[in-house]
Amino acid sequence: YCRGCDSTYTVVPHKLRPPTSDGVRPPGGRRKGTWMSEPHRRTRHRRGVAAVVVPLIALAVGFGAGGPSTASTPPDTAHSGPGIMLPAGSYVPGQLLVRFATGTTSATASRVNADIGASTAKSFGYLVPHLQLVQLRPGLTVSHALSLYGERAGVQYAQPNWINHISGMRHAAPAKTPNDPMYGQQWDWPKVDAPDAWSKTTGAHNIVVTDIDTGLDYNHQDLAANVWQNTAECDGQPGVDDDGNGYVDDCHGIDTINGDSDPMDDNGHGTHTGGTIGAVGNNGIGVTGFNWHVQVMPCKSHTSSGVGTVASIIECYQYVKMEKVKYGYDIVSTNNSYGGCTEACDWNPATYDAIKALVKPGVIMAFAAGNSGRDNDIQPNYPSNYDLPNIIAVAATGQTDNRASFSEYGHRSVDVGAPGVSVYSTLPNNNYGSESGTSMATPHVAGLAALLHSWKRSLPWWKLRNLIIAGGDQVASLDGSTVSGRRINAAGSMSCSGSTVFGMLAPVANTGAMSQTVQALNITCAKPAGQVSVKIQPAGTKLTLTDDGMHGDVVAGDGIYTAKWRPTCSTGQQTFTFSTGDAYTVDVVACAKLNPKSGPAGSSVKVTGSGYANGDVVDVFFDDQLVDTATADATGKVSDTITIPSDAGKGRHTVTLSGQTSGLAAAARFKVT
After folding, report:
1. Is residue 269 annotated as part of the catalytic site, yes or no?
2. For 106-162, how does the pLDDT look when each residue is reduced to its tens digit (9 = 90+)?
3. Could you confirm whether 213 is annotated as catalytic?
4. Active site residue: 22, 188, 193, 213, which one?
């Protein structure tokens, strides 16, 4: 996205295959250039795993002055080995994120790294077991290193450390209202019935919201009293890691992009989003935040120009988990105003694993839907499209409840809308101003999570999520373009009664013939609304979706219902009619076939595929191993002959065709005899 743009946005050139209109993920939502083992593969769901996190500024439309934020990095010469082609510029040269398999000792991991020519630069093992950021020796390219790690037993996956950009912004009881002099310029608070909610609670100072952004002006007159205080460090000795968390003098948070403990905002984006979450209310100064009383924890993950990396963001996630689980801070939510194309058009396993690691601690993660005005069901935006229950994807709305022209949307991929046009909030150096973007909408949701938590501390995180979604106002502009069809309403969430929301979550768009998950949200206010079934026609398939924490369902009893589905090559367009009466369509367009379907290791197999884009470069995998690439003809058909690996064990294996341009994936089974 570009700063200073209106409804169109300049993006950094995509370093991997671009997203497409059919929008189906390759196996596991695999990004080209990411090597991963079979357990991480999946078709594209409503939310996948993005390997790149986009500059935060990008999710506000045109925040600040100047042109688009781009990452300028030296080119990484592509390895000449088969299939691994990495255009330069969207990842950090000389670095990889590598996750070793469960049970791998640190000594074994070190030996593998040393053999390849790498060393551990940072460990994320507290967040995701066995995940490391590794530094490559001089002369070893990222693409070559990916090939080398892919050949080693005990490596679960390896991926580049993708560049990411923020989401940009554009300048632009009885109800209880604050005495802040600029409150009249904040149209968003009356719109979401915040004054009515404030009659019940104005927040609590021991509740924390983490703002993962460009930092925060923690000296701002309207923020200082609500900035997170790490008491051990604020009251400790300078230059000493008083609390033993690995960071020295992290009194107010950390800076993961520059590697220090000073999260001061040098851009402005983070100070604006932070003010929406928690500018001090009723203090007779400036504006008010959603929470008059709260602690905003800044984690500076992006540079002054809005550029971050997967590693800088994952480190923020790890900090959140550590400060909540190990040190006891009540972190209820995170604000994530970043993501989208070009870098985060696809998912990556490291980001997926890191977000999933915050499910068990109960951290709600509000993500910006993006500012390109497109349908995220068709062309996904990550991280908001990741298929995880602790994510709330947020579209931007205006003063008349119109969906903002720049806001991305998705009937199955974006949950709710929130004010995101001409939002008035804090800016650095005791300044204030209006900005627009899904970056501005998202902190309304992160802030609402904290306000609801202060209202009813006993509610688990998933009930807070459900109340945010079901308690909103139904608005025409979001009907059919979000899961809920609603714009958030704080008082509505607190008084919710009998409000049922149903929405199909996955698959979100066209798909391929392979095993995948069908998911649907079915809630009445905070609670699950009951088991649902679906009839898929004309295939005649009937599925019962369950909310039991098994078979692909991440959290039991949270209101998201799941079933497994394996369409065949002849499935074609299908209508999903649920027991609630709601109907959705999915096209199964990609297909893979093998001849023969069985044979010994070392034998040759003809692989054919259809449904791909003209000229699409299609990767051919045997289980987790990339064995060849082929090119689709003008009709979208692929034909190739592969050799079954000589070390393939007897039994069933999966051969997958994954289009680099189309994003489509399809799979077929092969039996090694």
Report:
1. yes
2. 999 999 999 999 999 999 999 999 999 999 999 999 889 988 998 888 898 899 898
3. yes
4. 213
